[in-house]
Amino acid sequence: MKQAHDNTVPEAVYSKVPAVTLGFWVIKILATTLGETGGDTVSMTLSWGYLAATGLFAAILATLIWAQIAAKRFHPFLYWATIVASTTAGTTLADFATRSLGIGYTGGSLLLLSLVLISLFAWHRTLGSVNVNRVVTPRAEVFYWITITFSQTLGTALGDWLADTGGMGYIGAAAIFAGAIAVCAALYHFTSTSRVGLFWAAFILTRPLGAAVGDFLDKPFAKGGLALSRPLASAVLAAAIVLLVLLIPQRAGRHPGESVQPAKGA
Q1: Measured between alpha carbons, how far is 44 from 187 in angstroms, rounded to an integer?
Q2: Among residues 110, 84, 105, 107, which one has the least CA distance to residue 28?
């Protein structure tokens, strides 16, 4: 006799990415800033160059993504380590493309924006949703991390483009991206704009914000920066991230089941 309901299927499956909360955004911005200072530390301060630094961070990123996908549940430190690896790899890759290959900030930003949109399109066509609360299968995780890595790389090029080519300087660029994130927050709270679309818009915008802030911290006075030590700034940012992960409750995002309504956040 067939059962009316399969009791082995849970009403909600928890993903291996964190729920989108205010704490998530605070840590994300710190991680993107660390990506900028950390990437510059290896490629410039340690004189590895953009290509060798990209190879190093890409290898670390691939290892962490494999560990993230292989994990059976959400691990906060593994997740945020993977985010930091993606943003450092994005920093050096964007610098290699825009400076070493000579395509410039404008060309690099347009190319990387296209890659982000293609990744999101392929993800949606394959799995039917790009909602981060639905990242519960290995295929979804692969799309998730590919999209994130492209967005982190785009953010570096976009931040440099506005600060340098756009002539806004690091503080001006940071203010513009912070304002754009504030607009996303206002749309989230006061309109019915797609939560998924707002999440990805804000997620992408945090990266150029971090790039501008990171450059402001470590670039020379003559270029509008504070000329702080890149390794020291990176160490302070890393310590702040570890502290916040310990202090701020970390919980996995939830994949809505049949009787559970989708979470509002993403």
Answers
A1: 39
A2: 84
Residue pair 68/78 in contact (Cβ under 8 Å)? The answer is: yes
**Integer angstrom CA distances of residue 71 from 16, 28, 68:** 8, 21, 5
DSSP string, 170-220: HHHHHHHHHHHHHHHHHHHHHS---HHHHHHHHHHHHHHHHHHHHHHHHS-
C-alpha distances in Å from residue 87, one per residue of 12, 223, 228, 236: 30, 23, 20, 17
Q: Is the pTM of this model over 0.90?
A: no
Type of residue numbered 50: Y
Which H/E stretch holds residue 146? Answer: helix 138-160
- The pLDDT tens digits for 182-241 are 999 999 999 999 999 999 999 999 999 998 898 889 888 877 788 889 999 999 999 999
Of the candidates 16, 171, 4, 166, the one whose C-alpha atom is nearest the C-alpha of residue 79 is 16
Q: Which residue shows structure tokens 């493309």?
A: 97
- What is the token pair recorded at 171? 């503080």
Q: Return the SS3 of 254.
A: strand
* Whole-number Å distance between alpha carbons of 33 and 2: 55
